[in-house]
Amino acid sequence: MNMIQGLDMDTIAGDSDGNQYLTFMLAGEEYGLDILRVREIKGWDNVTPIPNTPKYIKGVINLRGTIVPIIDLRQRFSLDAIEYGPTTVVIVLKVNSEKGSRTMGIVVDAVSEVYNIDEESLKAAPDFGQAISTDFVKGLGTVDEKMIIVLDIDHLLNSSVLNAVVDQATE
């Protein structure tokens, strides 16, 4: 059975119509991503740092023979850094790009829930003008009176700087 910290992924994948989102916390806000992209959730562990990389790239881990770059989502979003604690986790994801798919990990404050959110109910991200890009936001969903920021993980983790660093780290 494929388990992710108490979530039966085989059951979730079997029941999914593509509208299930794993939610996680960052700086008190709840974010979501397509659960079918999640490969594993693991507790924070030390990583091997890669020199001359942006601060949000924590380093790489060896996950059963695969070199996986680890991105601190707090720092990627320019949020205040915090000391990692017992709820800090790495969500290992399948990310698609023009070069194909690759495995990457994101560090988040905590994993929250799995929610069904209809694509039609997602509201477009607000337009803040050219100063702030929200291209990585797939939409905003509401579940039980709370707002969930649904991320387009492919867009978020496919910047030219990030791709160059990841290519360097996995060579």
From TrEMBL:
| Biological process, per Gene Ontology | chemotaxis; signal transduction
User: Which GO cellular component term is one of those annotated?
Assistant: cytosol
Major location, coarse class?
cytoplasm
The protein here is known as Chemotaxis protein CheW
Instruction: List, alphabetically, the InterPro entries matched.
Output: CheW (IPR039315), CheW-like_dom_sf (IPR036061), CheW-lke_dom (IPR002545)
Cross-referenced Pfam families, in alphabetical order? CheW (PF01584)
Record CDD domains:
CheW
Record domain CheW-like: where: 18-162
Where does the protein end up? Answer: Cytoplasm
Entry keywords, A to Z: Chemotaxis, Cytoplasm
Keyword tRNA-binding appears in the UniProt entry = no
Q: SUPFAM superfamilies, alphabetically?
A: CheW-like
